[in-house]
Amino acid sequence: MSEFSISITVAGRPYKLVVEKEQEELFRNAAKLIDKRIKEYSSSYAFKDKQDLLAMVALEYTVSFLQNEQATRESELLLNDKLTGIDNALNELLKAR
Question: What is the DSSP letter of 4?
Answer without folding.
Answer: E
